[in-house]
Design goal:
This protein is α/β, with parallel strands linked by helices and 395 residues long. It folds into two domains: 6-44 and 289-393, Aspartate Aminotransferase, domain 1, CATH 3.90.1150; 48-286, Aspartate Aminotransferase, domain 2 (3-Layer(aba) Sandwich), CATH 3.40.640.10. The protein has 13 helices and 14 strands. It has helices spanning 6-10, 15-28, 47-58, 71-85, 100-111, 126-134, 154-160, 183-193, 253-266, 272-283, 290-308, 344-355, 379-393, and strands at residues 34-35, 94-97, 117-121, 138-142, 165-171, 200-204, 229-234, 247-250, 323-324, 335-336, 339-340, 357-358, 360-361, 371-374. The strands form four sheets. Strands 2-8-7-6-5-3-4 form a seven-stranded mixed β-sheet, sandwiched between helices. The chain has a three-stranded antiparallel β-sheet with strand order 9-14-13. Helix 3 (47-58) crosses helix 10 (272-283) and helix 7 runs parallel beside helix 8. It is globular and about 60 Å long. Bound molecules: 4'-deoxy-4'-aminopyridoxal-5'-phosphate and glutamic acid. Glutamic acid (GLU) binds at residues 14, 16-17, 38-40, 101, 126-127, 175.
Length: 395
């Protein structure tokens, strides 16, 4: 009998990927599934980026890459940080990885000692908690609610900090709530952190460009924060490049060096063709991707309007990313199609099994009253999905 490690036994399967797999299975069985579970743009990678990749193949970019990324890509990232975020990183402070997910893992492994606490404002992106646990850290969840637009306040942060606090991890725009921290809100958090210089911030900005409201602000650009912040970003979302697997960080030199050392033993440098293509993506004018952002904005309004029309869904207005995160706790205790709903997981499964609409339970994001619905799907699919949900829950 094979005995797996305790570490792996304790690890949860990624809820987003698990739900997507379940939806695919039902689809293969012939059901008309509408997949609103996975956070994945439904656009093709823009032509100019694909062309750069084809050229890279033809130019024989086929060998191992430098562990921390091609120097030309690091310069493109350096310029991107300056252009979009007003951040001056040296190229030694930049590490390219196989997706932002690996960037996050690297940072956790580089910084966490057993028992170190990592503050996670809820709702948080699904993998944060397990990446922290896998590295023997203790996640400390800070609950937020719809009426605070799911954003952690300075007061909540102060109360959550203990002598064991090592890091704070958050995303803005946030997956799953779509909330975007304003400059003032980040400044208020930074003011608290000024009293705790040992605490590192991991600012996940992968949805930076998918932002419909406030100007995006990087935590590292707030006075006093750059030397203690890891800025995580990548091309999966804004450039519709999820499968290309390129993410990156800008970080204090010691952290960047540690991440490179780790990566050198685990995966080596990221994929050669993808890195060449990302140079072109990052050098392009951001307006090249406006057509996708505009479409996401239209869909956000569409889904918010349709949700308003379904009894029992209570939703904030997300300013970014491509998710809505409605509170559906009004259904708890009710029975629909002979199924009693006790929690968000039951509700999400009900939607899948009875309406053939795939969503993700909020429990995976640290909020058991909500479900996450991705609107990275066509307007027709969104309309059909919301109609099915309405028919089901109002039946
Ligand atoms: N952070 C957040 C908030 C995400 O939603 C995702 C989704 N994939 C990631 C990181 C990881 O992105 P990547 O595809 O670059 O690994
Ligand atoms: N980030 C996406 C999501 O939240 C992709 C899935 C994943 O990487 O877990 O759905």
């Amino acid at each position: 009998m094979i005995k797996l490690s305790d570490k792996i036994e304790k690890l949860e399967t990624s809820a987003t990927l698990a739900m997507a797999a379940k939806a695919r299975e039902l689809k293969a069985e012939g059901h008309q599934i509408i997949g609103l579970s996975l956070g994945e743009p439904d656009f093709n990678t823009p032509e100019f980026i694909k062309k750069a990749a084809i050229e890279a193949i033809e130019d024989n970019y086929n060998t191992y890459t430098p562990v921390d990324g091609y120097p030309e890509l690091k310069v493109a990232i350096q310029q991107k940080f300056k252009r979009d975020n007003n951040l001056d990183y040296s190229t030694q402070q930049i590490v390219v990885s196989t997706g932002a997910k690996q960037s996050l893992y690297n940072v956790a492994a580089a910084l966490i000692n057993p028992g170190d606490e990592v503050i996670l404002p809820c709702p948080y992106w699904v993998s944060y908690k397990d990446i922290v646990k896998l590295n023997e850290g203790s996640p400390v969840e800070v609950k937020t609610s719809i009426d605070q637009d799911f954003k952690m306040t300075a007061d909540q942060l102060r109360k959550a900090i203990t002598p064991k606090t090592k890091m704070i991890w958050y995303s803005s725009p946030c997956n799953p709530s779509g909330s975007v921290y304003t400059k003032e809100e980040l400044e208020a958090l930074a003011e608290v952190l000024a009293d705790y210089p040992q605490v590192v911030v991991v600012s996940d900005e992968i949805y930076e460009h998918i932002n419909f409201g406030h100007q995006h602000v990087s935590m590292a650009s707030i006075t006093g924060m750059k030397d203690r912040t890891v800025t995580v970003n990548g091309v999966s979302k804004a450039f519709a490049m999820t499968g290309w697997r390129i993410g990156y960080i800008g970080a204090p030199k010691a952290i960047a060096k540690a991440c490179t050392k780790l990566q050198g033993q685990v995966t080596s440098g990221a994929n050669c063709i993808a890195q060449r293509a990302v140079i072109t993506a990052l050098q392009a004018d951001v307006s090249e991707i406006d057509y996708m952002i505009d479409e996401f904005k239209t869909r956000r309004q569409l889904i918010l309007n349709l949700l308003k029309d379904i009894k029992g869904f209570d939703c904030n207005k997300p300013e970014g990313a491509f998710y809505v995160f409605p509170d559906i706790s009004s259904f708890f205790g009710k029975t629909i199609k002979d199924k009693t709903i006790q929690n968000a997981t039951d509700f999400s499964l009900l939607l899948l099994e009875e309406a053939y609409v795939a969503t993700v339970t909020g429990e995976a994001f640290g909020n058991p009253n909500c479900i996450r619905i991705s609107y990275a799907a066509s307007q027709e699919e969104i309309k059909e999905a919301m109609q099915r949900i309405k028919n089901l829950v109002e039946s």
